[in-house]
Amino acid sequence: MKRITSLLMATMLCLASFAQDPNFHIYLAFGQSNMEGNATPEAQDKTNVPARFKMMAAVNFSNPSRTKGKWYTATPPLCRQGTGLTPCDYFGRELCDKLPEQITVGVINVALGGCSIKMFDEDQIGEYLPTCADWLKNYAAQYNNHPYNELISLAKKAQKDGVIKGILLHQGCTDNMASWWPEEVKKLYNRILNDLALSPDEVPLLVGELVGQAEGGSCSGHNSACIAKMPNLIKNCYVISSKGCPQAGDGLHFSAEGYRIIGRRYGQAMLDFLEKSDDNAQFDAVSIAASTEEIVLTPGSNTIFAIYATDANGKQYNVTRKCQFTADDPDVATVEGIQMIAKGSSGETTVHVSFTDQSGNTVTTDIKVAISLFPLTESGLNPSLSGSGTFNGKTLALTTGKDGLGGWKYTGGIDASEYKYLVVRLRLASAAKPIVRIYNTTDASGDCYEYPMQRTKEAVIELKDLQTKAGKALNLKKIQMIGFSSSGSAAIYLSEIFFSNDGVNPVTAIHSVEMNPTGHLKGAPNMYNIAGQRINNLQPGINIVDGKKIMVK
């Protein structure tokens, strides 16, 4: 018995050692030379590093000896062997100085001097990396020639230890004043959030300015032309000022003192955010509200949301992880952590949310959730299934990159075999010559069926016997993506897209069954037979009237 008890205790201790610690705050950092660290650390930078300030080695070091994927006290260098002082050094120190002692701070720094932001874009690195100088290729080789994948892999490993709280970026000299840079950063930020199941309401982006004009910065124009635009594109984005940060004399890199100043500014911005969303805050709640009151999901998909509590002084706190969630119909959707997850293929439900504050008072709110095959919302339509696209939920304007793909992904697949047509209607004919694509895979570069719309406003695609570009039969029982590719030269203004059995009207959602032995309701609007064809009179068998099944004997 004693031996069994000892084994159980040992097992529990082992499990505890791998448990996620909510007091271990982890930050991801990426960029080029200033994030990599250009200044030689001085004596003050190597001493008095708090023991609770950690770095995860992103590559193997020989001096100091560090193993990739393991945590160490954050004594510089924090990026790679041979790199210098970075904003991360004093970012971490600032947090340790100001946060409670039970909080440990960890950073993961993946940066490459001289690289474009394209180095971190999985859609562009294949073309970009071969054009780089040999020295830059050597840097990339230390990250297995894919720095973004390495960053995500390390981050997932770190998530077993703690909680990712923020993302730091310092990059731009190579892409100085490039008009596409802000959207590219937004795309990368969203991809990181998606790949790591993080919430934009909980994980901000901190973007540092380049050496300023007053300090002799060679690329200072990037600050106003590009970096200043980021808060307009990303809700929780902080621009970290470089004003007064001395440079090294080359117009590009900060001096050691410059890194100390801007690093602490990164930390101060993060502290400002944490104060607004402190998970450990004690307060009395007056009300709670969801970041969105209505969520539309595609079958098999999920989305991240947040719940905010407000106290008597109007201060808000992110309390998502402390709430209780109950769905009227859990077969439609449920909540796991901070994600709303579609369980059904169609339907609607209300999710009731409750939060109990420190005094035992409970406040509530509701979220309406609908499952739709083709939601025309910014959260429901992904404009960047491949390439970098945009979608405006108000104007329904979809823009894809050249040969990119925007549309809907059904990870578990949907069965379209019961339908005869897919109908696509645009508000305007598009000069981008959109192509409707239907996939049996979630790989946008994979084989698919294509229907060129050219400059027409409507496509009625007969689903029977469709073949892919490679000549294979399209499996209608497992459709995994439907979307649009285009030349990228203009927007595609969507109107509606739906499955149909008559090529004109959508197959109406069926909510319930009612019995009608007499066959009344003659001439009722929105009346269809079970095949989806419009009818003027109720027929024997099942009829669909205003979304309800009517049985006539």
Offer a few descriptive terms.
553 residues; alpha+beta; Rossmann fold; Immunoglobulin-like; Jelly Rolls; seven-stranded mixed sheet; five-stranded antiparallel sheet; 19% helix; globular; disordered N terminus
Using the 3D structure, state the CATH architecture of the largest domain: 3-Layer(aba) Sandwich
Mean pLDDT: 88
Q: What strand order characterises the main sheet? A: 5-2-6-1-7-8-9
Oligomer: single chain
Looking at the structure, the CATH topology of the largest domain is: Rossmann fold
Largest sheet: 7 strands, mixed
Would you give an account of this structure?
The protein is α+β, with helices and mostly antiparallel strands and 553 residues long. It has 4 domains: 19-276, Rossmann fold (3-Layer(aba) Sandwich), CATH 3.40.50; 285-371, Immunoglobulin-like (Sandwich), CATH 2.60.40.1080; 382-500, Jelly Rolls, CATH 2.60.120; 513-552, no CATH class. It is built from 11 helices and 33 strands. The strands form 8 sheets. The protein has a 7-stranded mixed sheet, with helices on both faces. A 5-stranded antiparallel sheet has the order 20-23-28-25-26, with no helix packed on it. A 5-stranded antiparallel sheet has the order 21-22-29-24-27, with no helix packed on it. A hairpin with a 4-residue loop joins β21 (390-392) and β22.
